[in-house]
Amino acid sequence: MSDDRHVVLIHGAWSRGDQLSDARRAFEARGYTVHTPTLRHHELPPAEGASKIASLSLMDYVDDLVALVESLDSPPLIVGHSLGAYIGQLLAARIAHVGLVAACPSSAGAAALTAPSLRITLGHFRQKRPWAMPVKLDWKVFRSAVAPTLPDDLARQIYADLVYESRRVLFWELAHPRLDRKKAAAVDFARITTPVLIIAGERDRIVPASHVRKVPSRFANARYVEIAGSDHMVLSGKALDVTMGHVDDWLADSGLSVAN
């Protein structure tokens, strides 16, 4: 068996795996073998991937990640950001892992209704045949709600690499979990008994810290930390070093330590 210790790093909505390259390097510097999968069809150019992404389910995303984790030689540390943090919880309930880090995790149901999310929803429904369309994130919403504290050049660089997201995931499975017969967004929290770290950004408007503070109570063994002055992008820019400091402390206190 390999001595590798794995991290599976899951990106958020509209994103791709390589957009977490700074976080990947941070974990690699700590001796981990890091996997940054791209959610299904998000690797395609936006014009090509849009129609394929539109009807994807959370279950599609989780199934792909289960296959990845099952291919590893040891259970990984699961780290997710935003939608990726919600997917990480679904994954952790299905597969062996050593711990879970959920950074600015998306919410389901009424908790997902924030002013920025409503702006995204209303903007989408102004389009023709909205239920046949994938979802694009508007720059103004991104800049004001997701990344208001990032330097402008970094914010524009991140935004330029965004792709479309699934309308089924955002406007059905997460927005109306009780109506979804397949219960795609239902997390079996009782199955997650490993150490959990929940991270919020103090100035996050898309997933406010006031919402994230409620998440740890769902787990048997969870810690909450809040990154002062940070927006949603706690794994980017200057916030990353602060975030990784909290991750290091949590790993050590949980007996997981760092790989090296």
Automatic annotation (TrEMBL):
Domain AB hydrolase-1: 7-235
GO MF annotations in UniProt: catalytic activity
Entry-linked SUPFAM superfamilies: alpha/beta-Hydrolases (SSF53474)
PANTHER family, A to Z: HYDROLASE ALPHA/BETA FOLD FAMILY, PEROXISOMAL MEMBRANE PROTEIN LPX1
Protein name: Lysophospholipase
Classification lineage: Bacteria, Bacillati, Actinomycetota, Actinomycetes, Mycobacteriales
